[in-house]
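DM between two lab members

TW: hey, do you still have the 5-formyltetrahydrofolate cyclo-ligase entry open?
JB: yeah, one sec
JB: this one, 189 aa:
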Amino acid sequence: MNKKELREKYKKLRTQISAEELDNSSIDIANQSLQLPIWEKSYYHIFLPIEKQKEINTEYILQILQGKDKNVIIPKSNFENNTLEHILLTDTTKLKINSWGIPEPTEGISIPEDKIEVVFVPLLAFDLQGNRIGYGKGFYDKFLSKCDPETIKIGLSLFPAETQIKEVLPTDIRLDLCVTPRETHRFKI
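TW: and the structure you got?
JB:
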């Protein structure tokens, strides 16, 4: 399947997930992530879920990060140029849901891409080579291309891997790992 077909397939699959299934899968993904070789790092970037899109509830991973006293960075979207700003999450960070349904910080301390060591990456689908499909705006590919080459890129997926995604572009950034509720796929680590 091409990217457009895969986007449609996985958006439809998400609509069929119950709130309880989504929550249980999110907990399973957080538990799987505890087994990853990433916990000695200091700066972790994590997305906050778009609830209406039934994205993985990253609150459980966020709790792990805060329990381990890690620096947590969350994205703020710029829809004029499809880029992200990276804001340090603190006790005083105020969040607001933007017009796309994304919870974002209203302001805060901006962290440069080269300081971020681990990125939890949202996606709709991924394949056995570590390629991913998002919503198609390129926010994460632009962001990940600016990160240090050693930055660990971890996809979080509700569904198993596709065998192969067609139409992969040179600007598409591959994942190092992808965590599903049942298993972890390792592509580079």
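TW: got it. The longest strand covers residues 71-78. The two ends are 27 Å apart (CA to CA).
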